[in-house]
Structures are given as C-alpha cells and as structure tokens.
Amino acid sequence: MIEIKLQKMDTPCWRNTLTALNKAKIFIVVLIGLLSIVPTEVVHAQQATWIWYPGDYSIWLGNKVQNRRTERGTFFPPFWKMDSHYVLVEFSHKYKLSAPDTIDIKVEGKYNVKLDGKLLFGSPEKIVIPAGLHSLNIKVYNQASVPALFVQGKAIQSDDSWKVTYEDKEWIDSSGKASDTSSGTVYVHAASWNFNSPDNLPSKFKLPTQPMPVVSVIHKNNGILYDFGKETFGYVKFHGLKGKGTLNVYYGESADEALSVDHCETLDRFHVKNAIAKDFTAPDSKAFRYVYVEKGNSLSYDSVSMQYEYLPLEYKGSFRCNDDQINKIWDVAAYTLHLTTREFFLDGIKRDRWMWSGDAYQSYLMNYYLFFNSPAVRRTTFALRGKDPVTSHINTIMDYTFYWFMGIYDYYQYTGDKKLIVQLYPRMKSLMDFCLSRRDSAGMMQGLAGDWVFIDWADFKMSKAGEVSFEQLLFCRSLETMATCAKLMDDSGSEKLYTKLAADLKTKLFTVFWSDKQNAFVHNRVKGVVSTQVTPYTNIFAVLFNYLNPEKREAVKENVLLNPDALKITTPYMQFYNLSALCSLGEQKYVLNQIRDYWGGMLKLGATSFWEKYNPKEKYPQLLSMYGRPFGKSLCHAWGASPIYLLGRYFLGVKPVKPGYQSYTVEPSLGGLQWMEGDVPTPNGKIHVYCSTKEIKVKSDTGTGTLRFRSLSTPVCKTATIKKIAGNQYELAINKDQEVVVKYKSVK
Amino acid sequence: MIEIKLQKMDTPCWRNTLTALNKAKIFIVVLIGLLSIVPTEVVHAQQATWIWYPGDYSIWLGNKVQNRRTERGTFFPPFWKMDSHYVLVEFSHKYKLSAPDTIDIKVEGKYNVKLDGKLLFGSPEKIVIPAGLHSLNIKVYNQASVPALFVQGKAIQSDDSWKVTYEDKEWIDSSGKASDTSSGTVYVHAASWNFNSPDNLPSKFKLPTQPMPVVSVIHKNNGILYDFGKETFGYVKFHGLKGKGTLNVYYGESADEALSVDHCETLDRFHVKNAIAKDFTAPDSKAFRYVYVEKGNSLSYDSVSMQYEYLPLEYKGSFRCNDDQINKIWDVAAYTLHLTTREFFLDGIKRDRWMWSGDAYQSYLMNYYLFFNSPAVRRTTFALRGKDPVTSHINTIMDYTFYWFMGIYDYYQYTGDKKLIVQLYPRMKSLMDFCLSRRDSAGMMQGLAGDWVFIDWADFKMSKAGEVSFEQLLFCRSLETMATCAKLMDDSGSEKLYTKLAADLKTKLFTVFWSDKQNAFVHNRVKGVVSTQVTPYTNIFAVLFNYLNPEKREAVKENVLLNPDALKITTPYMQFYNLSALCSLGEQKYVLNQIRDYWGGMLKLGATSFWEKYNPKEKYPQLLSMYGRPFGKSLCHAWGASPIYLLGRYFLGVKPVKPGYQSYTVEPSLGGLQWMEGDVPTPNGKIHVYCSTKEIKVKSDTGTGTLRFRSLSTPVCKTATIKKIAGNQYELAINKDQEVVVKYKSVK
Predict the structure, then answer these.
(1) Is B601 exposed, middle or buried (CB count within 10 Å of its CB: 0-12, 13-18, 19+)?
(2) Site from A141, A263, A463 to mutate, B interface, most B CB atoms within 10 angstroms
(3) Which of B165, B174, B634 is the best residue to mutate to test the A interface, defined by the most A CB atoms within 10 Å of its own CB?
(4) Is the pLDDT confidence value at B81 over 70?
(5) From CA B413, how far away is CA B661, in angstroms rounded?
C-alpha cells in the first residue's frame, strides 16, 4: 500500500457531499451513511484529543458553572430547564492502516471496545489494530459526567473525524443476525475542545489561577477592608489562619458593597478550627475589588491575597489612537470582556454568572474583534440551546431566542466554520418550530404565559404586551437566518418556507408598525390597537438589518436616533446597537463623543470594568442599586465592553464579506480622531489598519479585501490601483501579505 | 383555627378538578394552578418519604441497572437512547399550620430554601415554619443522581402531595418585580417509592441480599463445579481466599454452560493478592445455578457460597389444585417471576437484564395475579418510556411501543390508580405523535429505517416487511387506549381524534387483511400485494381484543388456534397470548394440557425456572443455544411465567370490570381439574376462590363481584340469589366480606 498523508473526513469531504444532497429530512443520515463507508487512510500520528457527543460537554459544564451562583451565601440556580448529556454514546471510526497500530484507550465512563464488530474482553486499555481495513466501535456510559474518549496510536487518534451516536440501534435476532445498523441511526461527528492529553480529563476541568496581592488594607468598623485595586475574580486566600471561630467574608465590587454586611450580594462564612496556622483558600471563586473581613477574636491570620482565576486568552485584536481617554476605554472594555469570557461568555461575574443569550450575542461580536476565540462561542451557543424538547424560550426570553439564531449566522460569517451549523441545524429547526407554533392569528409572536419579553432595562414606561414590533423584527431576522442556514444545509424545502415566512412578516412589520405620521416604527399593537409610542429599539435594529429605504433611514436617524427628545437608552446593552446603527449611518463623530461621555462617565466614577447599567443622572450610592437591592447592579458586565466592537467594526472599519474573511472590507472612519491604529483578528492571522487624516495603511494576513475611503484630494497609492466610485469615494483591492499605503486627505 | 385532619391534595381532589376541566392542552397547568392556591391544612405528622420529579428516579435507576449487563466479561449496554433525570428541579408546597412546625430538611443535591418567597441563608437543615399560611419552595440541583427531597416535621412532610417542576420561570426585572410564576410553568405532583427515612438515600439504593449455601461440589476438568441446586441470582462468595493469582469464575444456568469456559455467557476474572486469608464477594451479581471455578495453584480458598439478591415481595396470589404437576408449574412460574421482578420487571436474569416493553407487559399481567406490586409496574413503565423527544420506538421495536400503551390502561384497570395516567399522559401523546408521523399513505405503520418489527421468535419463515397485520392490530388497540386515556383526562379533542383513527384503522384491518378464502387474518401486505400466509399472531390478538364477530371467532379458533397444521408458536412469550385466547374461547381443558406438555416439558428437562424459548423437538445441548451462541438462551425468562396469569385469570377466572376491582367477575373453569383453590390480589385485599366439580366458594375483601358458572343441576346458594342467564348459565352477586357457597354440578 502506498503511504499517503492523513486524509481527514471532516470539512472538505462533507461539504461536497452536502452540496450533492437535496432531500431535506434525511440528509444527515445519508451523509453519515456515505462517510461511514469511506475509511480514513492514516499513516502518522496526529494530535489526539478527548472527544464527546457535540454539545454535551457544553451542556454539562454549563450546568456546573451556572449552578455556582450564590446570593448572600445561598445557592441560586437558574429558573429554566437544564438539560443533560447523553449518558450512553457510541464512538466509531474506520481506518485503513498500512502497518499495525498499537492504540492506548482512555475513557471517562464504563466502556466496551469492538474491533471489526467483535467485542473485546473487558475494557481494554491498549490494543493492537492490524494493518488493513478495520472498524473500531467504543461504547461509553457515564451518568455523572460526559462520556468521553481519548485514543492515541501511531496512526489512529481520537479527533473530530470520529463519528458518534446516542442510539446505535444495533440489535441481533434469535439467529444471531445483526440489525442493519446503517439505517435509522443518526451519526454525527464527535466534538472536542483542547483536552489533548490522556490525563487532562474533561470532567476535571478547572480554569487556571495565579496569585494576586492586596493593594491596600484599611481597618474599618469591626473588621478589615482589603482593596485589590481593580475589579477581579477568584479565590480569596488567608495566610497563616489559626484559631477557632467564624470568618465572615463580604465581597464588594465597590467598597460600599463590601462594607455592607447586610446587603452585599455575595459573602462567605467559614467555620475555622485550626490548632496550628494554615493557609486557607476559599473553595468558591467570587467577583470583587474589595473584601471586607470580620472575625471572632480567637481567630487570627497573617495576611490576605487572592488566586486570580481566568481563561487564558490571546489578545489578537488591538486599538490605539491619539485620544488617551478612548485608549483607556478600550483597555477597560478589553479587561471587562476578558473577565466575563470564561468557561462561557457570562453576563457578569458578580451576580448571575449565567449565560444569557442576548448578552452572549454581544460578547460574540466583541470577541471577533478581540480574542477571536471560536470555541468559547461554540460552547456558549450549545449550552444556551440545551436539548429538545423545547419547553420555553432561551433563558425564557423571547428576544433571547432570536439572538441565538442570529449568533449562529454571525459565527459562520466571521469564522467560516460551517460545522457548527451542521451540528446545530436540527436544534435550530426545532427551536424555530417552537416559535412558529406560538404565532397569533396575524402570524406574529406575543408573549404567552411563561414568556419573558425583555427588550431592555429602560427607565421609561414600556409595554411588553401584545405584538411588540421589536420582537417581530428579531423574529423576521431569525427566519432569514434560518433560510440562510437551510440553504447552507441544502435543505431547499425549509429554505423556501423560511424565506416566505420572513418576507411575509417583513411586509407586515411595515404595514402594521411603521407610522407615516411619526416617521418611525411604533412600539406595539395590543388587541388590534397600534400604540403611538416610539421606542428606540425597532428603529435601531431596522437600520442595522438594512430593512429601510433611504428616506426611512434618514427619518429614523433624525426622529429617533439623533433626536434629543426621543426616549433614552440607559444600558450599555442597547447602546451597543444604538451606536452601531449610528456608525452605520456615518455618525462616527457623534458616536465617539457618546463613548467619551458614557464610558468615560463610568471611568470618571472610578470604574475599573464596565457596568450593567449606567445613567449619568444617578449618583452614589443609588447608582450601585438594581433589582430593588442596594448593590444589585453588576459592575463588570460583558455588555459594557461594546467599544471593543464599535472601534474595530466601525472605526477601523473591518468586517467579513464572505465567510471567514475569504473576502472583507476595510472602511476606516476617524470620527474626529487624528489617527488610529489596530489589528482585527481573522481565522487566519490579522488585518492591520493604520489611519490618520493623511494616510491609510492596511496589511492583511488573509483573504482578499476592499479598502473604501473618502478623500478631499486625489489619493495616491504606489502599489495598487485606486478606483473612484462616486464623488469623493474611492476603493482599492487589498491582497494577502501586501501592505497598502494610501496618501489622502480625510473628509473631516 | 380549628384543627382538622390532614387533607391531602392528591387523588380525590384532582379527580374532581379534572372532571370539571374541558380545555385539552392547558389542563395540567390549570389543574396545578387551582391546586396551588388551596393550601393543605395539617396538624399531625404523616409518613415523610423521599420525593422527586415523576419518572426521574426510574429513568436514573434504569440506566444503572441496564448498564450492568456483561457479555463474557465485557460491558454490554443497551442500543437505544438512554435519558436522564432533570438535574434542576423545584419542590413546593403550601401549608396552613395551626401551630409552628420545626422541619428537618434532607436533600440529595445542592439546594436552597424559600419560605414565603424569601430565600433563607445557606442550605438550612432545620427551620421553623410559623403558624398560619405559608409557602415552601426548595430548589435542588444534582447532576449525578436524582434531585431528591426529604422533609419531616410534625405537620409537614415530603410526600406525593408536593408539587415539582423542572423550570419555575421565576425571573425578576430590574426593579425587583418577580415574574408571574403561576403562568407558563407546568407543575406536577412529586413522586416517591418507599424511601421513608432521611438516611435511606435514593441514590444509594441496593436490593437486599441473604446468604445461600452450595448444594453440591464436583471436581471437574481443571477446576471445581458448584451447584446451587436451582436457578438463582446474586454474588458468588469465596471464603478464606488466600494467595496470589487469577480466579476464573464461569457462570452457568446449566452445568454445560458453566463448564464451557470458552462459551459461557457470563464470567469473572479476579486478580487476587491476599497475603492472609480473606472472604471475597464478587462485586457484580449474576444469574446462575452452577459456578465453575478455575484458579492458579498459588491461590486457595476454604469454600464457596453466594449472596442471594432479591426484591422483597409478598406472594399475595396463590393457586393449588388436585394436579401436582400443575402446582409445581405454578410454583416454578412464581419463582421465575420473582427472580425477574427486581428494580424493574426484567426480561431474563442471565443475559440482558434489560427492560423490554413486550416482556414487561406480560410481567405486569402476571404480577396482578401474584405480587400485585404496583410500584414495580410504575417504575418499569416510566423507565421504558424515558423522555422526549421520541427518537425511536421503545426498545427500537414497533410492537413494543404498542404494548407500552396497552400496559398503562391495564395498570389503571387493575389498580384503579389514575395518577400514572395523569403523570404520563403528555409522554403518551408525544409517543403516539411519533407513531402517527410514521404512517404510510394507507394510514398504516411499516417498519422504517431503524425500526425493529419483532412479533416473536419463530421457527418458521416470517416476513417483517411492509404493512404487517399484527402491527396494525396493536396500533389500533393503542389508539383505543389513547382514546380511553384522553377521556379520563377530559381531553375531549384528542379523545375524538384517537377514536376516529382507531375506528378507521380497524375497518382497514378487516378489508385488507381478513381473507374470506382462508377464513383468517393473513400476515402482511407488501407494496400493495397481500400475502397468503396465515400466522397465528393477528388471529390470536383479534380474539383477545374481542374484535371478531361470532362467525369469525369460530373460524379463527378452528383454522388457526386449534388447527394442528397451523404454524406453531415456540416461545412462552406468544404462548401467553395463544393460550389466553384459547381460554377466552372456553378451551381451558385444551390449555391445561398444553400447560402440562409445554411447561411440564421444561420441568421434565430439569428446569428450575422457565425459559425464554422451548421447542419440544430440540434436545440437549442444542436447546441451550440461541442468538447463534451455544448458551445464548435465557433459562429464567419472565415471559416463561405465564401460567401464573392463565391460572388466575382464566381458571380461577377473576378479572376487574371497573378500575381497581370496584367491580369484578369470577368465572371459574376447572378445565378438567377435580378442584382448585387460590387467591387473586386486588388493591384492597384478596378474592379467594375455591372450585370443585360440586362446589364453588368465593370470598372477597373488596368491591362488588359477579360469579358466573355453568351447572348441569340447579345450583344452590343459601346466602345469595342465583340468577339463571341462559341454558345452564347462572350468576350471582358477591358482596365484600361475605362468603358465597354454591352447590352445583360442573359441566365437564
């Protein structure tokens, strides 16, 4: 046999296969049917990794993480259905070996091994696979944690090219004849993360930690207040703890909170009985800047420090400009996003520490401009979705269901990785079925019993009743996303259906909710009565989704987005969309000032990470309160980090046009800055942009791009041809690895 | 406040509530809505018990039990989807207390406690509930085992009157306002078994054991063969085991099997290293009569015994007659059923040890005439069904899905306990939806990819292709069952639908499959071509379901059931239905001879429990083989125990007419015996029947019954009025606790 290079069975193979398949419902089965008869030819070792059923690890870890929330020392779990991994799965692979291969098998769970359909004795840890064509089936049962497999040989290793199923339907009849196992069983490709050694057990996963010192120590009231200098997350540690008694530890994102023993959001009470001095680290990690400690007199310790807990992340994106306040905002936003990017994209680190689909959706977008960490997006997307049957909206929130759909399409657009769509498409369809089953007679979605219509935390009175225009808009966008994904999956029947549903709903959106009188979308319709209230949400998103003709775009901009009398947004959450929409309307200058005011406002109040909500009119200590509790507000909230996205997407102006930056555009916009410079990460390297009022420089590691800009003088580039588009608008092509330098004169 | 007796919220209350409700889809929500506003008035302690979400414990324990199967030392798990418990649930109750109550709380899992909507600190183990109206909510998270709760106070205790949900949807908005938790959340009543003390943890459940000695010891080949005298189940134990080496233990239901070190179905290899002599018990229980042990020379032990493992069961049913062979058959059948009635009703104890819906269905019916153990039926029914989504038939077998439906209705009929239907109705509907979605254009079900059409193990050639008449018959019966249950649930829309579907299918059954030429049902139709083969199955069940008019009944009896040239049944499984049908046609005498031949035949071959399959033509050692393996056949199989059912149901002749034996009939039939006597259990005591050729005596602890019999002389009863029905047929009423004695002259 000729030795050829490892030919993996994943991406390229199934893409071609998929394209050729037209039958809607059976394509997965057929797909795998085709795959299973083509063994992988292997000759040399690749990286083996722990594998499992797609999504199962995220769901399992999500349960663990989200059930760590405490409220003042009491366990505080989520209020939606938590699903589980499949407890019994079968992994399989076919190999064509040019030489015998000795493989080591490590499994999380009880397992058996079949070689060429024959069960081996016991649960073997090492076996020899002879040369030639062979099939390997390993069945694993694990109730408590995810059934997982690690196989390492010279030629064979566990990776995403393995197949896995939760029901192999492999029965035998009384004569010993086996069932036709290729039929009726849905196999999918296994999933993995980065557990790349046999001893790195998925079930034992913990984020790494590193020691961090206290910055200041102040004796206050009956105890001591420790300041760690900035918002942080981890395990408080007492050095040389000795004696007997209760150690009361009060955590605070603010000093006020830590000192409020009756109202701080998180606390610990440790019952100590140490005859000799010992170091003691709190068993659960918490978010805090301040820790206030009160203790009995018969207890003593030498000092306090902490173990900072974090997800190791590479800062691939960057931003610098001539304005130090903006630079500072970018840095604090990046730190905020890092603190909230953990096992998953969490909302905030102090209180919920849950995955919220609306919050996560923004984290994904910011992530594409900072860490470009795709596994974190995948983990969060799977964990949010859970499993069938669908019994409520994601997080019980209608809008959050819609953001979930939109996030998957964005993922594909930014990463070019279609596998997530392939893995999730059945769950996308069943979630959309849930939505479709809840439409009213007008084909719109109203909040039914148990549905939370969230939209935003607003300081004005906002109705959530009836047909809310914002929800219909997101619903429409979700249907469009489904149509796009159906097309990618060659599910033409569904593509047609979703396309029609989206078009119908879009038409209704305008006929019902667009007010010619107010020249904007109104808020809702209750029992046939259309409200006259204009709220920002539908209008903002209609701009972002590019649903408006030029007249309506202009109207929305003037009447809502830039109208000083319009209803105000007070959360960084909605500011994200509001400012994005304004940027897409060319209002970078206005937006930059908003960033200075809003995020700069938080910095002026001493923020070391960005908040869940900020209303410049609120003063201490009122501004720390939320949910009816004096320190309810989270001071480190992922949705507070949106300048990361705004500056990368709309100032450096980089966005993918084809999936995974195969093609992209760069449209720098200074918004009044003198110069700016930064990197935008892609699946393959970075796109570097420098822009001043006189010069633009772009260098890209990937794809083919288009640079677009406006210039008051005729622009000059020595290495590329500049095309005039219209008026003062120009564009030129960017090729991989070739820096483009343009001399020009910026418009403002 | 006036002290009144504990008024539980379960059965009587919700029955009335249900009757009053007509809306199909929302009845559960509404029901619980109503319940939740009526607090239970409590004043004195009841039995507290561990509670959980209905079905979850069965599913969890089912996973554990069914993943214990081994084949020659290798783990051998099921091939269908295994579901999991809900990992996060909330238990709640409202109480109206006349005095403060101190309650102890014990939980399996991480938990919090809310009293009157307010979270208490930590995870309290003891709290005081003040007098008055109070609500208690306890939320529990447990990934590895079932979230379970035990609460014991003077007036308050955990029991099935508690409510439970897997998604409470209790969110709060930024102002602190809580969601309307009564809406959109489905609460159901908690479930329990018999874990009635706080230290009796559900997760630690194990069946009890007791020591049993070896009956004989024979040195054979290179080892020793131990005979335990009869089929048994448990843990083999080595006394005074010493030395170093491998202890090879080969189990056999026959001596041949145990001695076949290369082909016995189960074996253990223990690696021993005991410097001093120690007793050693095998960690896993096995089925065997014989144990053959081979060991290295440097190993020694004093003796071997076993720990018999069993479910404690009361033998409530009994049967004795003048024929000792029949008595022996009844005893061995009872022992067979006891061995297979364990955590669940298992198929057989040696090999699968799984729940198979078709096997379990028969076990249920036998159980009603022996143990009347309702919890075992409930556990098995829940475990078989698992959870949504439905991805395949139960056990992947089409017929087994149908038996599952039928078993639920039988359960209600025998026990009168409607709660199981209430708990399972949503899962019944979704399983039926799965079936309905798989009909062909004729509205019939064919085996699709991944479906196993089982019917029976037959020694003749039988097609499973196309529309199999037997499957349509069971499908029709399942639809009737759904209609009946829908009616019980006041779900009138579904009742109507299922009734119509059943009627349509029944009509088709006759037009398509009844052959006027053969005067019987034929086997199947493939691509429009109706087969000419007459197999026994459809014909047998049509008799049992009472689908035939008198002419067709007679035709089936003569052409199929009593026709010596008809295709033969070789499994006790189908004999169950075959002989039941013959009994219902009055052929008790024929059936008794069949029992003597068939079950008597196994006894003559030395059976100490009844087998999975028996063909009188097969001889040793061939008769031990099955599935292509020399010892594949199970020699202790639940479906072998059917004489228990036949003798109770058709000879003593006792059956319920209204649910739970509120009314019942007794139609004794000696079938040629001189006399017989026995007890048939009911939910409230027993019905005792004695019948000889001259005298019938019936005494019942429950309900109102009707005794029916035939007599060649005018029958006499001193205490009741005998009514002549027709010819030599008579009947009289049986009242609770009043023995009826009838002098008569039996027909044969």
Answers:
(1) middle
(2) A141
(3) B174
(4) yes
(5) 8
pLDDT at B420 over 60: yes
Q: Taking CB atoms and an 8 Å cutoff, what residues of chain A touch B574?
A: none
pLDDT at B38: 47
Whole-number Å distance between alpha carbons of B228 and B218: 12
CA distances from B227 to B73, B253, B270, B338 (A): 21, 10, 20, 20
Query: Are the C-beta atoms of B355 and B383 separated by less than 8 Å?
Result: yes
Residue A383 is inside which H or E element, if any?
A: helix A374-385
Are the Cβ atoms of B79 and A170 closer than 8 angstroms?
yes
Res B632 pLDDT > 80:
yes
| Mutate: best of A75, A112, A170, A463, partner B, most B CBs <10 A | A75
* C-beta atoms of B174 and A86 within 8 A: no
SS3 state at A313: coil
| Segment holding B32, helix H or strand E | helix B27-36
Q: Which residues of chain A neighbour B175 with C-beta distances below 8 Å?
A: 627-628
Confidence band, pLDDT 50/70/90 cuts, at residue B170: confident
Residues B358-392: pLDDT tens digits?
A: 999 999 999 999 999 999 999 999 999 999 999 99
- What residues does B268 pair with on adjacent strands? B249
- Residues from chain A contacting residue B74 (CB–CB below 8 Å): 112, 119-123
How far is Cα B483 from Cα A204, in angstroms, rounded to an integer?
50
CA dist., res. B41 & res. B39, Å (int): 6
The model's pLDDT over A60-102, given as tens digits with 9 standing for 90+, comes to: 999 999 999 999 999 999 999 999 999 999 999 999 999 999 9
pLDDT at B131 over 70: yes
In angstroms, the separation between the Cα of residue A274 and the nearest Cα of chain B is 23
The residues, any chain, with a CB within 8 Å of residue B620's CB and separated by 6 or more, are B256, B605
The pLDDT tens digits for B210-229 are 999 999 999 999 999 999 99
Q: How far is B113 from chain A (nearest CA, A)?
A: 9
- Do B139 and A75 lie within an 8 Å CB cutoff? yes
Interface mutation vs chain A, best among B167, B268, B393, B395, most A CBs within 10 Å = B167
More confident residue, B17 or A710: A710
Beta strand pairing status for B299-300 and B223-252? Answer: antiparallel
- Chain A residues whose CB is inside 8 A of the B449 CB are 29, 183-184
**Structural domains in chain B plus CATH codes:** 11-201 (2.60.120.260), 209-309 (2.60.120.260), 326-397+570-651 (1.50.10.10), 398-453+460-567 (1.50.10.10), 653-743 (2.60.420.10)
Q: Name the residue of chain A whose CA is nearest to B456's CA.
A: A174
Q: How confident is the model at residue A459 (pLDDT cuts 50, 70, 90)?
A: confident
What digits encode the pLDDT tens for the residues A608-618?
Answer: 999 999 988 89
Token pair 């100032």 in the structure block, residue: A651
Pick the range with the lowest mean pLDDT from A8-22, A155-169, B691-705. A8-22
All residues of chain A having their beta carbon less than 8 Å from the beta carbon of residue B111 are 75
- How far apart CA B186 and CA B29 sit, in angstroms, is 5
Chain A residues with CB under 8 Å of B72 CB are: 119, 121
CA distance B251 to A134: 32
Average pLDDT, chain B: 92
Q: Tell me if ipTM is over 0.85.
A: yes
CB contact under 8 A, A169 and B79: yes
Beta bridge partners of A125: none
Residues facing B649 on adjacent strands: none
Q: Is the pLDDT of residue B616 over 50?
A: yes
For CA atoms A458, A463, A469, A472, the dihedral sign is: positive
Terminal C-alpha separation, chain A: 68
